[in-house]
């Protein structure tokens, strides 16, 4: 039996054990107990500990960003400006966007799960540059502190897109500070991307050739390429905004001889690929979860692997579909509309291939797999409404309306956040060594799915009816749909809080997890839960393809 | 359509109806493309649930032809809609030559509309039914976006650059008009209404809202007040090109190239006079960037446009021009 398909000593399934929850031998020898001081955490170079530092950090920012969303949803219950002032509302949605995009969505899956799992999955003892990895976390927090400073010093009112000349010459808020925060956190992304690329190229265990890499690693490779190539463009663009705002350098403001559309081109040249930075890791997680749920190899490994690369490559060529009504040439519009339809093809391949993976599988409905199926449903809706937006004549109507808001929340929140929670529920026993109550995991997965749809589906209708985004004073006719949306957001809010309770409860009182509680393949499941400090006692020799389930044994049962 | 489908927005133009047809047809396609995913995931989750006996023999793990077909066939179907929608979009960018033109200035946080007859409106736009209307729009500060949901159209309004939007409304009524591009503090209240009237009603409105002078006449007054006439009229001491008849004509430049003297060129020449200097003239004109507002520039352009082709060297001040006669 190869290293890939080795199972745990007892092979127990999650939730079936009822032993007292004392400290196990594996826990005593694990990375979690390798040093108890604060210093041993804050100066760690262990990729697993850094992943946990990120887990705590992105959770913190997720709830700050979520709080801003909650305030907005309460404000939107009525058409008048009663809870927030116009300026207050603008600051709320700007902070929501900035925090969620740069301090949660972009770092979430790569920096928590990519960090934790890539070395384990490829049979390495750490990332290629462990100290750079720690530095990236410190840079993330430096950017984070700037953002919190912006928050307490009154906020910023430009929208997360920082469109010029509003941001450079007109906005009242703390624009330079906010741009600095995003500027700084970009370096954290670049370092992480670089680290992953080098690690995946150079540190694979013997026998782990590219065709044996888990699809999780393929997607993270594609993500890292975008992080390294696109982020510097944003960095430069933000520096130019600061230069125009501070020194009156005419770059984007036509009153100074600049061109506001230049800003939009530069910004979306980063920010559209950034959408794929946010969603490719989600696709990475779901490919793993679908195979594990069905106990089958992913249907069409190479199609799914290369579709990630194709998304990353074509994703660089679609940026101006954000600009169909900006005054750009109509011929440019036609080209970018076409390319935006092309980029949907690899996403479509993934979805159809996952569906085919479930065919004749042994499908488990444990929490991670419920999250994965919820992801597929929401990602399909998000993706297909993206096609609607890529249609020029339709986009002219729904551009900058709630239709767009609903579309990208289906991808970012329905998709990426569902995948994030799926990953959390799948790898939690591996990361912490403890099982959590499966029942509450299922409840959370269903609540997130229901709450999400109730929140965001009405927004498609709002947008098609002509409700512009970033409006908190709105026409009376829209109120019913807004109330529905806020109701859904309440359910969603509680659903996001639940895991915080039962996962933390499991940390202390959960049943100890075996090395492979889900009975699935993958090198990370061959080491104890939680893994020892250096992952592998001996670097494994890989002789089999990933997802190499023993079909015959299952069929007899 | 708005009658029998709940949550369907009103339509007030043939273009809006054609966009809605595209939306409905394309939605039907994407439902066909996505339904198998939803139905099969649920069906498989039930049929092949772990521990449940089912025929699981001969599972397939790859099939290049199947995969290629579900990559290519949906894409080809979508391309049909791509052609359809792109044609509509191109049509939206080719305003008919006979359109009635209305000038629009956006600023934080109001819309200003200027009819050729001199009638000005704030946050309200009157237009006749059955007439091609072309809006020439510019912003005085940040980017705004004029959005008319009942017509299914919007266009960003940029500082420093004219953009246009055209339509032909066919259903009288008062409809919502909003700003769609985030433009600062009062973005969500930067709205108003578009009033679509039968041509008779519109003419009546034009008459009752008439001002002393047409847009071109207002421009002529500015032409004197800013001192433009001091140089650009014949027999002046300073040598400057005559502006009579130049509108819409090519102008040879100092650097050997040529431009069409459209509204954008005239506006830029007033604000940045030394950027594109007419051939044979010295770059001596001062900028009016801190003097002229966007509304002033529109009026000046209307005046220059009104100067007839070279039959009168001394710029005449036109009397009231009937709005019907102003389309180029």
UniProtKB/TrEMBL annotation, chain B:
Location, primary (coarse class): membrane
Gene Ontology molecular function: copper ion binding; cytochrome-c oxidase activity; heme binding; oxidoreductase activity
E.C. designation(s): 7.1.1.9
Residues spanning the membrane: 22-44, 64-84
Keyword Signal: no
NCBIfam families associated with the record: CoxB
Name the UniProt record assigns to this protein: cytochrome-c oxidase
Source species: Tianweitania sediminis
């Amino acid at each position: 039996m190869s290293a890939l398909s080795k199972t745990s000593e007892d092979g127990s399934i999650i939730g079936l054990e009822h032993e007292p929850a004392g400290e196990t031998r594996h826990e005593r020898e694990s990375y979690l107990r390798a040093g108890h001081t604060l210093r041993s955490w804050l100066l760690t170079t262990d990729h697993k500990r850094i992943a946990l530092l990120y887990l705590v950090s992105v959770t913190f920012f997720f709830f700050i960003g979520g709080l801003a969303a909650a305030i907005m949803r309460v404000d939107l219950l009525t058409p008048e400006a009663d809870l927030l002032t116009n300026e207050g509302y603008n600051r709320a949605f700007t902070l929501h966007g900035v925090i969620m995009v740069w301090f949660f969505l972009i770092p979430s899956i790569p920096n928590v799960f990519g960090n934790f799992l890539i070395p384990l999955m490829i049979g390495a003892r750490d990332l290629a540059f462990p100290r750079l990895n720690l530095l990236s976390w410190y840079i993330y927090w430096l950017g984070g502190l700037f953002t919190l400073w912006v928050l307490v010093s009154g906020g910023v009112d430009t929208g997360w897109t920082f469109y010029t000349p509003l941001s450079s010459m007109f906005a009242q808020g703390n624009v330079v500070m906010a741009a600095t925060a995003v500027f700084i956190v970009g370096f954290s992304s670049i370092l992480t991307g670089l680290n992953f690329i080098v690690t995946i190229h150079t540190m694979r265990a013997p026998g782990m050739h590219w065709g044996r890499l888990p699809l999780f690693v393929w997607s993270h490779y594609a993500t890292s390429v975008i992080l390294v190539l696109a982020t510097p463009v944003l960095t430069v663009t933000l520096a130019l905004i600061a230069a125009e705002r501070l020194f009156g350098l005419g770059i984007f403001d036509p009153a100074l001889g600049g061109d506001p559309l230049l800003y939009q081109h530069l910004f979306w040249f980063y920010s559209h690929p950034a959408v794929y930075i946010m969603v490719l890791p989600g696709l990475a997680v779901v490919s793993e979860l679908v195979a594990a749920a069905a106990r089958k190899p992913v249907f069409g490994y190479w199609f799914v692997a290369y579709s990630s690369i194709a998304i990353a490559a074509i994703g660089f060529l679609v940026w101006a579909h954000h600009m169909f009504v900006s005054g750009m040439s109509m011929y440019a519009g036609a080209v970018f509309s076409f390319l935006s339809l092309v980029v949907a093809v690899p996403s479509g391949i993934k979805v159809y291939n996952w569906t085919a993976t479930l065919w004749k599988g042994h499908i488990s409905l444990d929490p991670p797999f419920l999250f994965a199926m919820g992801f597929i449903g929401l990602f399909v809706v998000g993706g297909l409404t993206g096609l609607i937006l890529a249609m020029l004549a339709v986009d002219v109507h729904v551009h900058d309306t709630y239709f767009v808001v609903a579309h990208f929340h289906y991808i970012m929140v329905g998709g990426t956040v569902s995948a994030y929670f799926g990953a959390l529920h799948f790898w939690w026993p591996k990361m912490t060594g403890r099982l959590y109550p499966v029942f509450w995991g299922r409840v959370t997965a269903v609540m997130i799915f229901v709450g999400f749809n109730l929140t965001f589906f009405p927004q498609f209708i709002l947008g098609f009816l002509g409700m512009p985004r970033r409006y908190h004073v709105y026409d009376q006719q829209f109120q019913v749909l807004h109330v529905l949306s806020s109701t859904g957001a309440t359910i969603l809010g509680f659903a996001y809080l639940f895991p915080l309770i039962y996962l933390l409860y499991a940390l202390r009182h959960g049943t100890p997890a075996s090395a492979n509680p889900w009975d699935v393949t993958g090198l990370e499941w061959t080491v104890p839960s939680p893994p020892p400090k250096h992952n592998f006692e001996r670097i494994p020799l890989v002789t089999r393809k990933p997802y190499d389930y023993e079909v015959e044994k299952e069929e007899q049962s | 359509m708005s009658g029998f489908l709940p949550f369907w927005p009103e339509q007030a133009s043939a273009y809006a109806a054609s966009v809605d047809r595209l939306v409905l047809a394309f939605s039907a396609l994407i439902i066909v493309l996505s339904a198998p995913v939803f139905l099969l995931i649920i069906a498989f989750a039930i049929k092949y649930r772990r521990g449940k006996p089912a025929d699981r023999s001969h599972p397939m793990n790859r099939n290049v032809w199947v995969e290629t077909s579900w990559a290519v066939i949906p894409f080809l179907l979508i391309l049909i809609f791509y052609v359809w929608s792109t044609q509509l979009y191109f049509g939206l960018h080719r305003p008919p030559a006979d359109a009635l033109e209305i000038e629009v200035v956006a600023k934080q946080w109001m819309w200003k509309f200027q009819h050729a007859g001199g009638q000005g409106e704030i946050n309200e736009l009157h237009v006749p039914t059955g007439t091609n209307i072309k809006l020439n729009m510019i912003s005085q500060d940040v980017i705004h976006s004029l959005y008319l949901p009942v017509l299914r159209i919007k266009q960003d309004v940029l500082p420093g650059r004219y953009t246009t939007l055209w339509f032909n409304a066919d259903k009288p009524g008062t409809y919502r008009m909003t700003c769609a591009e985030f433009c600062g503090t009062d973005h969500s209240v930067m709205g108003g209404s578009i009033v679509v009237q039968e041509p008779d009603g519109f003419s009546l409105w034009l008459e009752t809202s008439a001002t002393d002078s047409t847009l071109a006449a207002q421009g002529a007054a500015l032409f004197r007040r800013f001192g433009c006439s001091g140089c650009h009229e014949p027999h002046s001491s300073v040598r400057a090109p005559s502006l009579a008849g130049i509108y819409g004509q090519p102008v040879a430049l100092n650097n050997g190239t040529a431009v069409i003297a459209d509204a954008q060129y005239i506006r830029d020449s007033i604000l940045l006079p030394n950027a594109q200097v007419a051939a044979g003239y010295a770059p001596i004109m001062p900028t009016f960037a801190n003097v002229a507002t966007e509304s002033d520039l529109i009026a000046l352009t209307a005046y220059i446009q009104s100067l007839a082709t070279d039959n009168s060297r001394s710029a005449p001040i036109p009397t009231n021009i009937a709005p019907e006669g102003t389309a180029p």
